Amino acid sequence: MVNAAALPTTIDLAIVGAGPQALTLVTHLLQKKQTMRNRFVVLDPSGQWLQQWQHQFAAYEIPHLRSPAVHHPDPNPHALRAFAESRFDELFPPYDLPGTQLFHDFCQEVIRRWQLQDRVVPAQVEHLEPIRKQGRQRFRLTLTNGEVLIARRVVLAIAGGIPHLPTWAQALPRTYPPERLCHSHQVDLRGLRLSGERILIIGSGLTSGHLALGAIARGAQVMMMARRTFYEKLFDAAPGWLGPKCLKGFYAESSWEARWQMIRDARNGGSLTPAVLTKLRRLQRDGKLSFYEQCEVQSATWKENAWQVSCNHPEAHDCITHMPIDRIWLATGTTLDINHWPLLSAIREQYPISDVEGLPILDKHLRWPGCNLFVMGGAAALQVGPVARNLFGAKLACDRIVPALIKRGF
Ligand SMILES: Cc1cc2nc3c(=O)[nH]c(=O)nc-3n(C[C@H](O)[C@H](O)[C@H](O)COP(=O)(O)OP(=O)(O)OC[C@H]3O[C@@H](n4cnc5c(N)ncnc54)[C@H](O)[C@@H]3O)c2cc1C
């Protein structure tokens, strides 16, 4: 049983979110300055570390991580390998990708070793407001339960992506049962009975692949559709983005728009890992899966308890129009735009910020210009690079935020 932390009235540092980014920050901060131990709080509605991470791995039945074992929230890159000493069968090829359970157990060990078990306050921050207290700049954090916390500095580690829905899905009248059309973040494979169902999964990323494998294992027939051709890639971005090979050029680029383009090119939309694509191709050969590539839904109608779908290539895919579809899952990713973070409305007003396509232009310490608000995760990508949202991105973010947090006078 994890004890939840109590909410103080004032604090030096408030960390919003308790995902892998926040955990990485806390371990790196304590490694550099033990005396910070009693000067921060972590706020997350779950009251626990990594709740969202664990949920998504369990809901999609993901067997192992996509990133290698050196990427994790502890400052020692070898700590996970050492932890796995007697569990090497849980490190998957080609680069020792940690099994889901191994990674979970390791993170619990990290939490225990850094004595962070009871450090998450169960609270959602609704509003963040810059204030002046005795002439000094502070933040007032208002929680959804009405409680208030005053903090000198704030780090936002909330991920913050909003599920992206294709236009045709947004325009649909809500005449269908909600579980028949879901964004992937609403799908939880556990407990679903799909035998005999036909499921259309849209999107070319790894989430599509995991959902397709899970649905087929439950007896469904799956159609995977993407605007592009499904393609394989080991990691979200090329390994060069994990070191100076690519990052040097990125950091040397002075145009934020050019950096945004580099991020886009590096991630290049959704991709499947070679292992997952191989499994899917096998299922295709077994007649359990079909791919609809270079293809988009034109319209979908809920009729007689099934979806009737037409696509933009009826000449090539006429078949789909005649197939009743039981469920549509939209594995279409998320959109990140800080202009749409309601939490920040007062900050944006008082400290206007420039952005490129929704990504804020932070300073080199990932600080919002004009105030002591720091941002981690995908929203820091213009400074950190294309892997900002990943585990390694959290480490890169710490290299920038921690020196500022421990500096005198900051
Ligand atoms: C299925 C999946 C698999 C992935 N696998 C990998 C992988 O193998 N390797 C890798 O490097 N990356 C992976 N990623 C990418 C990334 O590492 C994860 O998405 C990771 O969870 C991001 O960490 P985070 O801390 O930014 O966000 P989250 O884990 O989403 O945590 C953010 C937390 O902030 C909380 N929060 C949000 N708003 C508020 C608020 N207003 N007040 C208080 N708390 C709030 C949320 O409740 C949540 O707990 C994966 C992503 C997905 C979706």
A few lines on this structure:
It is built from 13 helices and 20 strands.
Give the helix/strand class.
alpha/beta
Oligomer: single chain
The total strand number stands at 20
What is the beta-strand fraction? 15-25%
Q: Largest sheet at a glance?
A: 7 strands, mixed
Distance between the termini: 36 Å
Which ions, cofactors or small ligands are bound in this entry?
flavin-adenine dinucleotide
Unreliable stretches (pLDDT < 50, length at least 5) are none
Helix share bin: 25-40%
Radius of gyration based on Cα positions:
22 Å
Number of helices: 13
The shape, in one word, is globular
What average pLDDT do the residues reach? 95
How would you characterize this protein structure?
The protein has 410 residues and is an alpha/beta fold. The protein has 13 helices and 20 strands. The strands form 6 sheets. Strands 1, 2, 5, 6, 7, 8 and 20 form a 7-stranded mixed β-sheet that branches. A 5-stranded parallel β-sheet has the order 10-16-11-12-13. A two-stranded antiparallel ribbon has the order 3-4. A hairpin with a 4-residue loop joins strand 7 (136-143) and strand 8 (148-156). The longest helix has 16 residues, at 391-406. The protein is globular, with a radius of gyration of 22 Å. The structure holds flavin-adenine dinucleotide. Residues 16-22, 43-46, 51-53, 56, 60, 65-67, 71, 124-125, 157-159, 207, 343, 377, 389-391 line the site of flavin-adenine dinucleotide (FAD).
